[in-house]
Amino acid sequence: MLASISATTINPRQNNIPLIQSVKKNRNVTSLRIYARQAALVAEPPSPHKTQNRTARLAESLLNFVHLHFDAPTNNSSYAGHGREIVDRRHKMADPEAPIMSPKEDISAKWNEIHTSDRYENLLSPLQPWLRREIVKYGEFAQATYDAFDFDSFSEYCGSCRYNRQKLFEKLGLSKNGYEITKYIYAMSHVDVPRWLERSHLVDTSWSKDSNWMGYIAVSDNEETKRLGRRDIVVAWRGTVAPTEWFEDLQNKLEPIDESGGEVKVEHGFRHIYTSKSETTRYNKLSASQQVMNEVKRLVKLYREKGEAVSLTITGHSLGGALALLNAYEAAETISGLPISVISFGAPRVGNVAFRDKLHKMGVRTLRVVVKQDLVPKAPGIMLNESIKKFEEITGNLDWVYTHVGAEIKVDVRSSPYLKRKFDLLGFHSLETYLHLVDGLVSSESSFREHAKRDVALVNKACGMLVDELRIPENWYQLEHKGLVKNPYGRWVKPTRDSEDVPSLHHINETPCPPCLD
Amino acid sequence: MLASISATTINPRQNNIPLIQSVKKNRNVTSLRIYARQAALVAEPPSPHKTQNRTARLAESLLNFVHLHFDAPTNNSSYAGHGREIVDRRHKMADPEAPIMSPKEDISAKWNEIHTSDRYENLLSPLQPWLRREIVKYGEFAQATYDAFDFDSFSEYCGSCRYNRQKLFEKLGLSKNGYEITKYIYAMSHVDVPRWLERSHLVDTSWSKDSNWMGYIAVSDNEETKRLGRRDIVVAWRGTVAPTEWFEDLQNKLEPIDESGGEVKVEHGFRHIYTSKSETTRYNKLSASQQVMNEVKRLVKLYREKGEAVSLTITGHSLGGALALLNAYEAAETISGLPISVISFGAPRVGNVAFRDKLHKMGVRTLRVVVKQDLVPKAPGIMLNESIKKFEEITGNLDWVYTHVGAEIKVDVRSSPYLKRKFDLLGFHSLETYLHLVDGLVSSESSFREHAKRDVALVNKACGMLVDELRIPENWYQLEHKGLVKNPYGRWVKPTRDSEDVPSLHHINETPCPPCLD
Questions:
Q1: Sequential DSSP letters for B61-107
Q2: Distance (Å, rounded) from C-alpha B477 to C-alpha B462?
Q3: Which residue in A370, B212, B227, B344 is deepest, having the highest Cβ count within 10 Å?
Q4: With an 8 Å Cβ cutoff, are B483 and A494 in contact?
Q5: 10 Å Cβ neighbour count for A66?
Q6: The CATH number of the domain where A137 resides is what?
Q7: Do B442 and B452 touch, CB atoms closer than 8 A?
């Protein structure tokens, strides 16, 4: 059905309701991809005098939406200047000794601007350098949940973190940020949303086939606390690298966030991952929600008793950004007087207008970074939300309309001279692409920041977005021999994981020791 | 056209010549794959009484050929016994301390059997253990040309060997074989057969964009010489890992092997790679042929002057097996009295009947290992050779018919309890699959050898043929981070190659020192 959509098929004089329903049913990304490409090429909004009735206007809105949001690949002729820019920048990139980060500055006096200003006025356009640096820091915390995740479906530890919490930041080169992980978070993989989470192929997997490592809670050390002006508790939620399978499975089903939520509704699947638990599992006798809230409450109490200012910053990419919002909502409802921010990357919509309004009313500040070409932030209801909002008279009720929360930082793949101009669904959604574009962002009107320092090679960790001139292989983030090693007898074997990196129930079921920060 | 072939289309009562011509034109492997699958499923040989004329018999022959050579995947129900066998063997495989090689035995009195017996009688069925061990040894020499090859098209050394000749065997764990490499071989990559060889994406590549590393010449050390009963010179030719692009480009054009060749004709593309040279290149002022023959002649002279018995064993996989035959032909014509063997794996046909007869007459012994399911040994002329040979009355002339040379050892993917029963073009052709199946071979009637010791994990180096129960990842032979390393400044960079591993003209243009064997 989708493949047959064309300027001819979408005739505003026809009744298009059945067509739109069929679009809604098809959530297959491959189809969407084909559709988006075709739509971008063929869709021309019909001229105004032809839009005679409500149905026709709805169709027009849909067409406009498609046209605006999906750009056809730039043709080669516009590449000339791009090529020269690359050459000009090459010598800079080739300098292997160039610093990879701007120097840190003391932001203790600035941080409150986020919590006192409404919707981050004066901070985003142009993007304040100190805020950009913070966004990249939190983004790297989210990226760590991918970099350390055991994706190997033949591993007995598939779905766990490859390192224990004491080693993770050191292994990933993030110790520089001055935080310490105090707890890992697990979520059930048996949620009724199929294929969202990693499952081991092995039936007799020895850690837990019921749970996935979903992130961690960390807290700033004394030096970083001084620089920030408060003890910062971070929650980083793991998402999904590829918007393939789970995207397809989004059920577009809004349900009340809790018994007392009233009109506040959120997507069923996200809420299910956040709240599921089972007595028969090893790692999810408590839900992810309970694990996180217990630890956050403990840390807040610990530092408040010391007389410190405390903040909570929740971050995540993709699905992780959705979980971050649910987490922020619960924290704001549960802990009074705690400044809470969410910094999300490529996150889908989570709830309805009431959810958005309640979050805002409770003082949760949300900064959503969105790559213009990424499809995931347009989900759920990729085709319908914007269109329907403009035609709310059809229902007169916004309860079932997914709505984004907070302030948006929009970045554009085409702003970077380092990125290919090709349609690449995975590349657009990749968190490293996001971090690269944030690093180069000054404002939507400016060109890519000349003094951006972040290593561009990182972009190609899990995609192939970098232009060939940079000579960085695609999808290069991989273990040597996929983790096999040659043992002294000459056999290639999967090494036993260091016992200290084996997931431990201790982290979950017992109260951890206070972090050794003093 | 191919997609439309079915039991209905191939009607023996129709004139099928145009159909077969269209099959010949299409050399696209993907199409072949689809075709083979479909053919295996739909092709039933027509009943004899329907085959009325020559054309009909040709069609029948083609159908039989297709039917015999491509097996439809086994359905799951026949897996039960297979699964149990796997489980039975699992504890053996799981023993990481199991030896990976049978003990060596002295074969000094046995080797001549190959050169005195015609077509290896009494050695192949059952396969003599000492010969199996030798076949695996030479196969590992051929495998080394893949394992050490720089496939990275963004590397400035793309198409070269990653290690210098002194280090190669040590790096790959092949020092145990007791050989020392005396010279590397290079061939031009600018041959008029497109896409056969690796080419760097980089225009300013610093070693040579004109040449590819194509293998090496090695010689047995004193200990191995004693065990073998003669000083063994080995030539190992690199082939192509994937029968994708070059397969498609096979020109099926026979041409005389040289001015004096008379009726002896070989495939144009193979001969072109073997003989091309250019004064404007750095590594191919001499052709691969000249490089090899100069070194072999030097070594033969060196050891004959010491009064030693000398032999030449030429090995290669795929394209490398074709080059091995051309090399053997030239060596047999050039050096009198030298015992020459070719041990090839998954090699295509190279020449016509006269080529085969001349090789045999000159005393070249050839052992071709062929996986029954592999398509490459059926090339060139994948569909036509067997059929046409049976209908030689059509032309009465075998000059243009490609013919295999020497004795064949046929192995069957279905003989191994470790391999999946799936159609996998790359897996069937992979040299590691070949070595695994040879290691398990007793005879075509026997089941997989119980005491086979070769590490089965090796099979999945560059394919995914191993059953899931073994828990070995697919395509696991890969560099950590595709060769990128984090430098002390935190940037991911391509490290400079050790200067001693940079390809050196010294190896090509100057006479190397004699190997330090004494």
A1: HHHHHHHHH-PPPPPGGGHHHHHHHHHHHHHHHT-TTS-SSPPP---
A2: 6
A3: B344
A4: no
A5: 23
A6: 3.40.50.1820
A7: no
Under DSSP, the state recorded for B254 is: E
- Residue with tokens 């209801």, as numbered in its chain: A381
- Would you tell me how many other CB atoms lie within 10 Å of the CB of residue B125? 15
A208 min Cα distance to partner chain B (Å): 17
Interchain pair B96, A486: CB under 8 A: no
Interface contact A473-B457, CB threshold 8 A:
no
Lowest model confidence (mean pLDDT) among A52-61, B21-30, B224-233, B305-314 = B21-30
Evaluate whether B303 touches B355 at the Cβ level (below 8 Å): no
Q: What separation in angstroms does the CA of B309 have from each of B22, B299, B342?
A: 52, 12, 18
- For the record, the structure tokens of B330 come out as 């030239």
Any domain includes A401: yes
Q: What is the mean pLDDT of chain A?
A: 76
- Cα B505 from chain centre: 27
* Residue among B148, B233, B85 at smallest CA distance from B501: B148
DSSP B511: P
**Chain A interface, mutation test: which of B492, B493, B494, most A Cβ atoms within 10 Å?**
B492
Q: Which of residues 146-185 of A touch B (CB under 8 A)?
A: 152, 154, 173
Residue A343: which pLDDT band, with cuts at 50, 70 and 90?
A: very high
- Give the tens place of pLDDT for each residue, A273-328: 899 888 888 888 999 999 999 999 999 999 999 999 999 999 999 999 999 999 99
Tens of pLDDT, residues A79-98: 334 555 665 565 565 566 77
Residue of A184 and A404 predicted with greater confidence: A184
Strand partners, A180: A219
When divided into structural domains, chain B yields a total of 1
- As a whole number of angstroms, the distance between CA A388 and CA A394 comes to 8
| Residue B283: φ, ψ to 5° | -105, -10
Q: So what's the pLDDT on residue A503? A: 80
Chain B residues inside the 8 Å CB shell of A493 = 96, 457
Confidence at B126, pLDDT banded by 50, 70, 90 = very high
Does residue A189 contact residue A142 with C-beta atoms inside 8 Å? no
Mean pLDDT of chain B: 76
A499 within domain boundaries: no
Active-site residues of B, by number, are: 318, 374, 429
Q: Confidence band (pLDDT; 50, 70, 90) for B117?
A: low
- Nearest Cα neighbor of B346 from B429, B239, B268 is B429
State yes or no: is A429 an active-site residue: yes
The residues, any chain, with a CB within 8 Å of residue B82's CB and separated by 6 or more, are: B417, B421
Element (H, E) at A133: helix A129-147
How many CA atoms does the CB half-sphere of B367 hold within 13 Å? Answer: 25
Q: B40 in contact with A at a CB cutoff of 8 Å?
A: no
Q: Which of A10, A32, A163 is nearest to A503 (CA)?
A: A163
pTM for this predicted structure:
0.77
Contact A476/B484, CB-based, under 8 Å? Answer: yes
Q: Does B452 touch chain A (CB under 8 A)?
A: no
**Residues of the domain holding A347:** 106-415
A395 located within any domain: yes
Higher per-residue pLDDT: B441 or A4:
B441
A&B contacts, CB < 8 Å: 94
pLDDT digits (tens, 9 = 90+) for B293-323: 999 999 999 999 999 999 999 999 999 999 9
Percent of chain A at pLDDT > 90 equals 44
- Does some domain include residue A463? no
List b or e across B468-499, with b for residues whose CB sees 16 or more CB atoms inside 10 angstroms.
ebbbbbeebbbbebbbbeeeeebbbbbeebee
